[in-house]
Amino acid sequence: ERLLAESGGGSVQSGGSLRLSCVASGFRFSDSDVTWARQAPGKGEERVSKIFSDGNVVYASAVKDRFSISRDNSKNTVYLEMNSLKPEDTANYFCEIDSIRGQGTQVTVSS
């Protein structure tokens, strides 16, 4: 069974930092492209960042220069380092591989 498990969310003040983790099981992880996305209450999903199997990365304009995505294939894990957090970053963050998603981890940023 292919599963994704996110962790690392929490409540921080504006300007704070968090590091999210996404642990994958059942995938050929090193061959997988991994996306971090988020959904805030009452809003649509937003793709935040993606790391490809070759290590290339892309970011949404809203998070570029503040967020950093990385992967550790030895641990089947992708990380999302989030700095200079803003209240508008408040959302449930989840990772996705091949249309399979985890439950997500909640990030709340207070002003």
Task: Describe what this molecule looks like in 3D.
This protein has 111 residues and is mainly beta. It has no helices and eleven strands. It has strands spanning 3-7, 10-13, 18-25, 34-39, 45-51, 57-59, 67-72, 77-82, 91-97, 100-101, 105-110. The strands form two sheets. Strands 2, 4, 5, 6, 9, 10 and 11 form a seven-stranded mixed sheet that branches. A four-stranded antiparallel sheet has the order 1-3-8-7, with no helix packed on it. The model has no long low-confidence stretch (mean pLDDT 97).
Summarize this structure briefly.
The chain has 111 residues and is mainly beta. 0% of the residues lie in helices and 54% in strands. The protein contains no helices and eleven strands.
List its traits.
four-stranded antiparallel β-sheet, 54% strand, mainly beta
What is the count of β-strands?
11
Q: How many DSSP helices?
A: 0
Please report the distance between the alpha carbons of the first and last residues.
40 Å
Query: Beta-strand level of the residues, as a percent range?
Result: over 45%
Mean model confidence by pLDDT: 97
